[in-house]
Write a structure and sequence with these properties.
Layout: E1 3-8, E2 10-13, E3 18-25, E4 29-39, E5 46-52, E6 57-59, E7 67-72, E8 77-82, E9 91-103, E10 106-113, E11 117-122
Parallel strand pairs: 2-11
Antiparallel strand pairs: 1-3, 3-8, 4-5, 4-9, 5-6, 7-8, 9-10, 9-11
């Protein structure tokens, strides 16, 4: 079964930087896009950044040029470089991917979620 494995995250002081990485593995699949979401306890999960297989990227309005998403969707990898972090960026960050998974002779749509990585930014 396909799954997402995340790495990175951690704690940093305001103004610092962190990098999150994510890779998909297991089974036979083809991804269309990979994304990063974040969630603060008690609030809705919000999209941070998206990277499509065509190389197009988009960001949540709160990013304001501080984050950069990069990767190779064909190789099922994505990285989120986060700069100038503030306490408001403290959250659990989740990697997400959608595409198709091959099941015997059929391809079926799939959506994958990583387990989440804690990012904590202190004042």
């Amino acid at each position: 079964q396909a799954r997402l494995v995340e790495s990175g995250g951690g704690s940093v002081q305001a103004g610092g930087s962190l990098t999150l990485s994510c890779a998909a593995s297991g089974g036979h699949f083809s991804l269309n896009a990979m994304r990063w979401y974040r969630q603060v306890t008690g609030k809705d999960r919000e999209m941070v950044a998206t990277l499509t297989i065509g190389g197009n990227s988009s960001y949540g309005p709160f990013v304001k040029g501080r984050f950069t998403v990069s990767g190779d969707i064909a190789k099922s990898t994505v990285t989120l470089q986060m700069n100038n972090l503030g306490p408001e960026d403290t959250a659990v960050y989740f990697c997400n991917a959608d595409g198709l998974s091959r099941q015997t002779t059929d391809w079926i749509p799939i959506t994958l979620w990583g387990p989440g990585s804690q990012v904590t930014v202190s004042p």
